[in-house]
Structures are given as C-alpha cells and as structure tokens.
Amino acid sequence: MVTSRALMGDAAFEQFVLPEVDVLLRVARSLTRHDADAEDLVQDTLLRAFRAIDHFDGRHPRAWLFTILRNAHHNRHRRRRPELLRDGNQAARQADLVDSRERVDSIVETTLGADVERALRTLTPPFRQVVSLVDIGGLSYAEAARVLDIAEGTVMSRLHRARRRVREQLEACRAAQEGSA
User: Fold this and answer.
1) Cβ neighbourhood burial of 39 (10 Å; 0-12, 13-18, 19+)
2) Cα gap 149→141, rounded to integer Å
3) Domains (ranges, CATH) in the chain?
4) Per-residue pLDDT tens for 81-120?
5) Is the pTM of this model over 0.90?
C-alpha cells in the first residue's frame, strides 16, 4: 500500500532533485575525471537524496545536493584509499589536491592548447581547482564554493588571481614567440 507520505516524497524528489541531475553530472565529471565514475557518483547521490527527501525543507536544493555529492565523493575516495583514514585530515586534503591536479591536467590535455595547458600547470592546486570548476566545468561561483567547501568570495578571489597568472603566462609566451620569429 502506497502512503500519502511516500507520494509526497516522490513529488518532492521530482520537483527538487531531478531538475539538478545535469549540473550534478557536470560537477561529478570534474571531480572524478571519468564518465562512468561520474555516473556512479551521481547515482549514489540520487539514491541518498531519495532516501533523505522527507527531511529536506525545500530550500536550496542545489546546495543540498552538492553537499550530498561532495560527501559521497569523499566517502568513495576514502574507501579506495583506507590509509588516509589513519593519516587524518591533512592526508585527505593532500590527496584531494593531487586528485584535483590530475583532473585539471586531464581536462587541459584534451580540450585546450599547449600554451594554455602550460600556463594552467604553473598554477598551484587551489587555483587550478577553481579554474577547472568555473571556467572549464561551467559552474557558478556559488556552485564551485559548495563543491570545494570554501567561501564564494574565496572562489572569486582565487579565480581572479588564477586568470591573471594564466594571462601573464600567455603574454610572456606570445612575446617569446614573436621575439623568435
């Protein structure tokens, strides 16, 4: 027998969660680097959201879903690397930074020119992360802030400085090319 509470949960899931699937998939791809892993992560996120929809208040569904996605990603990452649990938060943060560097490198290699790739590789991981999510992944500042679990102002600041550094690198590269011609 289907209860009215179950029907309300289904309706809430359709209203709040299903419209966000494309955005979740984009973010999951930027986190995992692989389509299959991203799809699995989104599936896990959707399952967790479905189970918790009765507790959701209806405000800020995207933020709620990004929190679930981020937590699911961290849990998956920890399961793959159990030694991180023994090393504490610092080891987990370091592994995330290494993973973000690999994600950005993978995206850059397949979509951008060699000069831009070199310029992006000169960025430190925190700056590459925001460039990856906002400029390459197409997320808003607020969405990137939720994914990275930092303040929106921090995303904006890092992105501004990262773009400036990339621009400086590209100008230096162009000047060097013109000087050798």
Assistant:
1) middle
2) 12
3) 1-80 (1.10.1740.10), 88-181 (1.10.10.10)
4) 544 444 455 555 555 555 555 555 554 444 346 777 788 8
5) no
